[in-house]
Amino acid sequence: MLVIPPRSDLRSQPIETPRLLLAPVDPADSPEVWLAVNGSRPMLSKWLPWVQYYTEPASSVRFTEACVADWDQGRAVRFAIRERAGRTFAGVVGLESCVHMHRSCELGYWLRKESMRRGLMTEAARAAVEFAFRYMGAHRVRVAAATDNHASLRVIGRLGFRFEGIARQAEWCEDRWLDHAVFALLATDPRPT
Length: 193
Description:
Pfam families: Acetyltransf_3. This is GNAT family N-acetyltransferase. The protein has 6 helices and 8 strands, in the order αββαααβββαβαββ. Strands 1-2-3-4-5-6-8-7 form an 8-stranded mixed beta sheet, with helices on both faces. α2 crosses α4. The model has no long low-confidence stretch (mean pLDDT 96).
């Protein structure tokens, strides 16, 4: 079984990396989440079908409240990514679709435009994956990205995930079907140094 620690533990003691802090998404983050999504809409909507439904600040309230419920009920663990210098909100990294019986979950993530192309997502995703293996007891973490989303595929490659196949027409996004490259990492797999 997966072990999901209480949100309060990680709100008071966030995960720290050299440049980032990762703490559970909270309703207090709602205004910053809205500004990040709305200000990054052209980049995010190309790859994330949910962005088109993020139409007003109340969308962020609903999302952050769902994050709390999903964490508390063991369905998903989502972290707000903040830069340590200035505590600037950068995006979200999550461990989605938690299947306790199989000790598995799926990695998902996005960044605001100002935080892109700086290696922050590799840093945040690496911390989330290590959290899944070390603290949640995960055996398998899956991740998928559109076959032409080269930035996301580079993050996945740097984390050492192994390619498992192509999910054809896996997602309808911006009036087109996206094929997904599917990858996984097992607790027993070697990690890149």
